[in-house]
Amino acid sequence: MSALLELENVSRTYGGGLFSRRQVMAVNDVSLRLEEGRPEIFTVVGESGSGKTTLARMILNMVPPSAGTIRFQGTDLATVRAAAERLAFMRKVQPIFQNPFEAFNPMKRVDRYLFATARRMADVQGDAAITEAADAALKSVGLSLAEVRGRFPHQLSGGQLQRVAIARALISRPALLVADEPVSMIDASLRASIVNLLRELRDRNGLTIIYITHDLATAYYVSDRIIIMRRGSVVESGDARTVLDNPQHPYSQLLKSSVLSPEVPTGVSHA
Fold it and tell me: Which 3 state secondary structure label does DSSP give 14?
């Protein structure tokens, strides 16, 4: 089976330049492989400063690794430089960010974002086709164009706006979503709906999702496979249930013990 995404000995160092000799190893020698044609939710768990967001940014080709290689569908991301190549990559690998209210200009209506994405990222032409593409993407996340048309971000709840962000990411029919703490800024009563939606997209759309989180309880219920990061390094990896039911590394054990009474968020069922 060919690799959808492959990281080989990837590291990212900051500092050590002209004005500072101190180097910080944000990500240290991380390797992982996601298979083409095997949709899954691959979760990266770690506390603040663990390197998980830096890892996500490298996978999204927003920052290059200092060492190692990242390949998406066999292409080394270091070679993806021309505008057309970057656009093709962005169509296949889409981000979902932590705070949906920061992902949208507060002065711009959210339907305008969807229309622009359909036109540029999916190369949809004609007003009718663009409208249809936006509506179809919204319906796939439990909304409709009628519900959001003409509305500004502040006129939607955090849960609704995050669904719009996910719909926007789906318009280009990506193969991989990279979701960085997608429920941490959403009201607790609405988090379950987003978690369940991601699982539905894995199953219904055949999507692979990299799910970045610090929340061990949510990770248990959403994940197929998991890595646990500490200070830039992977300390434990494997099947999510195996790792989280019986963690072997002392840091993983500490994380589990810190979740005093892990409860399934309302509306989340076991995978």
Answer: strand
First and final C-alpha spacing in the chain: 24
- Rounded to two decimals, what is the model's pTM? 0.91
**Partners of 44 in the beta sheet?**
212, 227
Q: Rounded to whole angstroms, how far apart are CA atoms 36 and 66?
A: 26
Which whole-number Å values give the CA distances from 168 to 136, 222, 232, in the listed order?
A: 10, 22, 31
Length of the chain: 271
Residue 66 corresponds to which amino acid?
S
**Interatomic CA distance for residues 194 and 222, integer angstroms:** 10
Q: In what order do the strands lie in the sheet with 3-15?
A: 23-35, 3-15, 67-72, 75-76
CA distance 58 to 15: 17
Among 9, 3, 47, 28, smallest CA distance to 234 is for 28
pLDDT tens figures, 19-54: 666 788 999 999 999 999 999 999 999 999 999 999
